[in-house]
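Structure tokens
________________
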Amino acid sequence: MNLDTMPLSRQVDFVFNQLEEELLHSLAGTVIIQIRNNIVGKYGVRHNPIESKNGEIGEAEQGMTREQVQAFRKMAVDSIRLKRNWTHGEILYDFSVRSGTSTWSASISFESNYNLAAGMFRYTPKYAQHALRETP
């Protein structure tokens, strides 16, 4: 698979396809997608699948169903249209399943980030600045 030629929305679809089994039965968490030059670099899920109450590990509540994971995937792909004018950063999809109901919710955060060292400005050591001032 060549990510250079694949639109970002298709890459996000691929990410959610890869994470589907991990998202199944999850109660809450965050899907993290790191982007560089409009290409997905790293991705993963931050969650804790072990439920503990009063210091006792017990049976976990029912988390996301396969249908909810598919709806989450569609929402994530559709959200890429909201990404504007940046090529480097992270997308965070926070999700949770409401206890005792069949509903779930999600929120999306886009974070752009750039590396100044790759830009046109470079750090000049202090001794070099001093030498520059003394030249005629």
